[in-house]
Design a protein that fits this description.
By secondary structure, the chain is an alpha+beta fold. It has 3 domains: about 260 residues, Hypothetical protein af1432, CATH 1.10.3210; about 80 residues, Growth Hormone, Chain: A (Up-down Bundle), CATH 1.20.1250.30; about 70 residues, no CATH class. Helices cover about 50% and strands about 10% of the residues. Strand 1 and strand 2 form a beta hairpin. Helix 3 runs antiparallel to helix 4, helix 4 runs parallel beside helix 9 and helix 16 packs across helix 17. The longest helix has 22 residues. The radius of gyration is 24 Å and the shape is globular. It starts with a strand and ends with a helix.
Length: about 425
């Protein structure tokens, strides 16, 4: 069982002003080594190379998600809503706090390279031989599995899962506000307090009172803007491309038996895809930055160059394309290959896309659960049926192709490019 703290703990936070911890279990989780590791993982991966203020951590974000969840539950309990299952309070708080504990260095960039998924690692940490698991077991033997099920979106109560993972959850509400604050933009701002006041537990769902629909529209528009202006910024994506190429090159060299001058033990299991919980704990951005610093001096010229580019922010140039011309792309690959520039590591087509709001269709996964509007007749309506704004941004994968390449390497051979290929590369 959990018990309240004798004295409430408070974190000063730039987004929520104060974060309040009132439960011994939550306090003990925050002080585990696995949760403290999140201080060494940036929230926005390579975004700091575009927006220099984006140095905030997964630790601060996870605390923020916990705080938003705590505020929602407090509002439900203050108003004594009958449809809120009070016994699920601690489960919601713990799942909110731990939802990102499995994140690796540079967030999703490393995940893509190795096929790791942070949700799966979060579950492994919750269920494995960890300090976090031991804290959760003090509540009850079944409690770690319940937390893992919420993170995996398989818990039997939708209202609990949707608090942490849905189209309007505590996770998204915190990261939009936090990322906007630290990148110095206004795109992600919305009226959080208003949204919290109009949320209701109703027949197993978390719904929005109709009078608060405009605040939700504002939230969805903020999310739309943040994706296109921040998360998919082409300079940030250029850094991600180089990071991915570093890992790709290192993997190839490792598989070929290349003798690295510098190596650290967790990397072996990382490249073999046999990571243990101990390896995962050691993998943070401090370790990877150290590795990149050393690999910048490796004998392999491609690995050394890519690491130097990443560390010194000598990123690839990008050209925006309306469509991919396969013929031109093949010609460019051949041109680079003939001049000793390996297109496998120095050329990339990227097409970022996202759905700001996905209209729910029965049978889809929980993450796609709709935002439901509750009117004064106790009727539930999916938000896109009531809002023209939401309809306009729903179900559309918007995006443009970006071609990334090292401008200075091609510039040396620019005179050798024919007019057609040169015009294609100059297309903006």
């Amino acid at each position: 069982m959990s018990r309240p703290l004798q004295e409430e703990k408070v974190f000063k936070d730039p987004v929520h002003k104060y974060i309040y911890v009132q439960d011994q279990t939550v306090w003990d989780l925050i002080n585990t080594k696995e949760f403290q590791r999140l201080r060494r993982v940036r929230q926005l991966g390579t975004c700091y190379l575009t927006f220099h203020g984006a140095e905030h951590s997964r630790f601060s974000h996870s605390l923020g998600v916990y705080e938003v969840t705590r505020k929602i539950i407090s509002q439900f309990e203050r108003n004594r809503y009958e449809d809120w299952p009070k016994e699920e309070r601690l489960l919601c708080l713990c799942a909110a706090l731990l939802h990102d504990v499995g994140h690796g260095p540079f967030s999703h960039s490393i995940e893509k390279a190795f096929g790791n998924h942070h949700e799966e690692w979060s579950r492994r940490i919750v269920l494995g031989d960890t300090e976090i698991h031991r804290v959760l077991r003090r509540v009850s033997p079944s409690f770690p599995q319940q937390v893992a099920d919420v993170i995996a979106k398989t818990y039997h109560r939708e209202i609990v899962v949707s608090m942490v993972s849905s189209q309007m959850d505590a996770d998204r509400m915190d990261y939009l506000l936090r990322d906007a604050y630290f990148t110095g933009v206004n795109y992600g701002t919305f009226d959080l307090e208003r949204i919290l006041r109009v949320l209701r537990p109703y027949k197993g769902h978390i719904v929005v009172k109709e009078s608060g629909m405009h605040a939700v529209e504002d939230y969805l528009m903020s999310r739309y803007q943040m994706y296109w202006q921040i998360y998919f910024h082409p300079v940030t994506r250029s850094a991600e491309v180089i990071l991915h190429k570093i890992v790709q090159r290192a993997k190839q060299l490792f598989e070929e038996g290349f003798s690295f001058r510098f190596w650290l033990p967790p990397l072996t299991n990382l490249f073999l895809r046999k990571l243990t919980l101990r390896d995962h704990y050691l993998l943070d951005e401090s370790l990877m930055q150290t590795v990149f610093m050393q690999w910048a001096c490796e004998d392999d010229p491609i690995l050394a160059d890519l690491c130097t580019r990443f560390l010194q922010r000598k990123l690839f140039k990008y050209v925006t394309l309306e469509r991919v011309d396969v013929r031109q792309l093949d010609r460019l690959r051949g041109f680079m290959q003939e001049r000793g520039i390996d297109p496998a590591y120095y050329l990339e087509i990227d097409f970022p896309s996202d759905l700001s709001y996905d209209v729910y269709r029965p049978g889809e996964q929980d993450e796609k659960l709709p935002i439901l509007i509750l009117d004064d007749k106790d009727t539930l309506t999916e938000i896109s049926r009531k809002s023209e704004i939401v309809r306009s941004i729903s179900g559309i994968h918007m995006g443009k192709y970006h071609l990334y390449y090292p401008a200075e390497l091609l510039e040396r051979h620019r005179a050798e490019l024919d007019a057609e290929l040169r015009a294609w590369l100059d297309e903006e």
